[in-house]
Input
Amino acid sequence: MRFFFIIIAGFLLVPFFVYSDINTYGTYYNNLAVMRRGGEWQYSDLNLFYLKLLKPSYDDFELETNLSFSLITQPDTEIQEGFDIQRLNFETSLFDIHLTLGRFLPQYHYTNFFQPLNVFLGPQFFKESVIYKGIDGLRLRKFLNPMTSLEYVCKPEAELVSSAHLLNLTSHMGSFDYSLIGMYEGESETFLPGFGFKGDLVISLFNETLFEIVQDDSINVTSATGFDYSFSNLMTMVEYLYNGGEGYRTPREGLSLAGTHYLFLNAFHFVPMGRSIGCSAIINLDDESALLAAYYENEVFHGVDFLTGIYFPSSDEGIDEFSSESLGSFILNCYIKAKF
Amino acid sequence: MRSSLLFLFTLLSFIPARAAELTGKQILEKVEDNVYAETMVYTGEFVINKGDRSFVKTFKGWSVGEEKAFVEFTNREDFGVKYLKIEDELWIAEEDDVIKISGHLLKRSIMGSDFSFEDMMESHKLSEIYEVTLLGEEKIGDEICYVLDLVSDKGDAPYARQKIWVGKEDFISYKYEYYALSGRLMKSAEVLETRRIDKKDFPVKIKMVDELRKGSSTVFELKDLKLNVRIPEEVFSRQNLLK
Output
């Protein structure tokens, strides 16, 4: 624990020696979940701080540092208290190449819930992705034209052959954004090519497809397709996920999906004064188990958002990810985000 | 972004022209001609009123004609929020993530204000997507105004019908009303202040009222506005969104 505080203190102090003028921006997140599990009420509390230190741009040189750390309290589980650094990275631009070094979170997605192209992350139940811990590595990004970028990410391991390397080409054509990615994960000798797009074709359409080609030539295909539509202030979204193949899957942060066909449905309604109410369902079409949710969101003060949701697993018989045994039979989730 | 366009529309509608007997379309074209600028660089603010609550969001922006715009919010709470518009497409950068806004999500409110993404994105001339009829004349304050009725049967028009009050002397659009297909009044806008820049009277302060939400209104104000200045092409790029 002391080690982490030294790192944070160092992070906070260094910029004051390096920069004479610096802007600091912060966000505090708190997520409190209360659930009924095994006949008892349990709770889990996540506190997360995010700090960004930004040196203003001079002569095409910029330096940005990002830090986020979390404190988790789960008194009724084996994790009594958890402290972790989610992000700690430095970003700068040199010769038109943007460099990120340290712990950062690469994100590639066009869909809303299932995001196959986020090769380091899995799906999640709750709204915010900020709780995902970043990877330790290096990112280089070069823009080939105003809308086209080529990105390289390296996640090094102690044994260099086990490192992961990712290339991502992002561009724009017609009314569509698209990405092509290719990742090689050295430890399992897995090659992950994929593509994604989002654009308009009468309605908003999006897709992400990822292949996992493993050493023994077995192939997994993960593909999410969806659209959104609105009726005045009522917004609706539908997303279907195909999660096929029997081969090895690279481990990811977040929820692992055991089924083959899933559906995500979401509808929310904007009500006066910056508030919205909504409901969603994640359905495993193989066994028809589901997780149902209703939520309410409000900007309580300027820069302070509050969200509360109630989650119900549909039955005790579902597969692991939606069973009340693992999730609890009733989950109340409250979330606050405050910028300072 | 579109804030800039909408403002521009409203602003531009304030340019004088002498007319004898004009048709509704000619009046609207004069309004649009008056508001056109090759480029714009500006700073400004949204004052968003929600019942008893009121909050301010500040921004700086760049635009080229009606085709390109880039807006970056500068108030502390919205630091890092940026919008890029190219033709009919819109991207948002927020918290190190870039999202393309498309389809019906464009009907969502922008930054909690009474402007929608679709309001912001409108890059077509009104005279191209609406049939215009001159209804008559009415007085708005001290100004005698033409009253124009705009009706669209095209699906890409943000509203099925609009009414615009255009100053008879200065061709500034002083007031707007926006209607749904059912005929229900959805929003209204009025120009609170104009400023003379480069021999044009630009609306620099506009109030938009959401008529479906009691107590909900947004005042958009351009604090600093420069016309026809050179803007580097890199401003309107995904690279700038990710900076």
